[in-house]
Amino acid sequence: MQGFTALDGALLIDKPAGPTSHDVVDAIRRRFGIKKAGHCGTLDPNATGLLILVLGRGTKLSEKLMGDDKVYEGRIKFGVTTDSHDADGQVLETKPVPPLTLDQLNEAAAAFIGDQLQTPPMVSAVKKGGVPLYKLARRGVEVEREPRLIHIYNFRFTEYREPLGQFRIACTKGTYVRSLAHELGRKLGCGAHLASLRRSASGKFDVADAAPLDEVLNWTSAELQKKVIPFLKLAAG
Predict the structure, then answer these.
(1) Max Cα separation, the chain?
(2) Could you tell me if 177 and 74 are in contact, meaning their C-beta atoms sit under 8 angstroms apart?
(3) 179 and 136 inside one domain
(4) Catalytic residue among 44, 68, 86, 214, which?
(5) Bridge partners of 169?
(6) Which run of H or of E encompasses 64?
(7) Same domain, 51 and 75
C-alpha cells in the first residue's frame, strides 16, 4: 500500500462530555504511542458525538475532512442568556419565556436557513494574532472578529417543553451553533443559550459508526488497527 501502515488514516470517536478535542487526541496518542495525530473539527468540552481523528499520514487529509458539512442535535434553553452562549458561561440576563409552540419555534428557526455572515463568539478557539479568542476573553479583552460566511441547510425543532427545545441542524463547517441559539433567543425577545450539543454526522461519517473514547482506550493495538479507516480509502472518498 505504497508505504502506508495500518495506522495511517482516520478513527471515528464518540466524544464524551468533559475533555477538549485536543485531550481526546492526546489520550489516543499516548495510549498507542502514535507520533502524529490530530482531529477534524473542534467540539467544545461539554459537546459530545462524532470526532474524526487523523493518525500518521492521515493528518495530510485533515483539511479535506474538516471542510465537510456537519449535522448536530441538541437542546436550547430559553429565558437565560450567557456570555459564552452556552451552559458553560456566566449568566448575563434572565427573562420570562413567552408562550411558545413547536410551530412558532420552527417558524423562527426557518429564518436562519440559507447563507449568512456569522461573527465567531469571543469564547472560541478562533485565533487573533496567534492567540485563541477564549484566552483573551478570560482576561476580559474583547476584540473585533471577522464575520464568516456559513450556510444553514436545515434547522428544526422536534420537541419543546418550556424552557427547553430539542433541535436538529445541518450546516457548513465553522458554524457556531451556540451563536445561533443566542440569536434565536434574541429574536424571540427572551434570550437563550445552547444547553447541550451532539455532533451526529460529518460528511459521509456518522456517529453510529464511532466508538466511545473509554472503549477505544481499552483496545489493543491490533483492535485499533482494524478500526482505522485507511488513508487511500479516505483520499479516494
Answers:
(1) 63
(2) yes
(3) yes
(4) 44
(5) 72, 155
(6) helix 62-66
(7) no
How far apart (Å, rounded) are the C-alpha atoms in residues 163 and 211?
Answer: 32
Contact 6, 231 (CB under 8 A): no
DSSP code of residue 204: T
Give the residues of the chain that fall short of pLDDT 50. Answer: 1
pLDDT in tens, 61-96: 999 999 999 999 999 999 999 989 999 989 999 999
The pLDDT value recorded for residue 194 is 98
What's residue 160's pLDDT?
98
Q: What is the pLDDT of residue 1?
A: 46
**What's the confidence (pLDDT) of residue 120?**
81
Q: Does 58 share its domain with 80? A: no
Q: Tell me, what's the pLDDT at 2? A: 59
DSSP 208-225: GG-EEHHHHTTS-HHHHH
Q: Which residues 6+ apart lie within 8 Å of 223 measured at CB?
A: none
3-class secondary-structure state, position 50: strand
Instruction: Tell me: do 24 and 101 sit in the same domain.
Output: no
Same domain for 90 and 51? no
Provide the number of structural domains found in the chain.
Answer: 2
Kindly report the pTM of this predicted structure.
Answer: 0.92
Give the distance, in angstroms, between the CA of residue 195 and the centroid of all CA atoms in the same chain. 13
β-bridge pairing 192-202 and 48-55: parallel
| Residue 8 annotated as catalytic | no
CATH of the domain at 120: 3.30.2350.10
DSSP type of residue 87: T
Tell me: do 209 and 161 sit in the same domain.
Answer: no
- Domain of residue 58 covers 9-67+204-236
What gap in Å lies between CA 42 and CA 184, rounded to an integer?
Answer: 23
**Is 75 in contact with 166 (CB distance < 8 Å)?**
yes
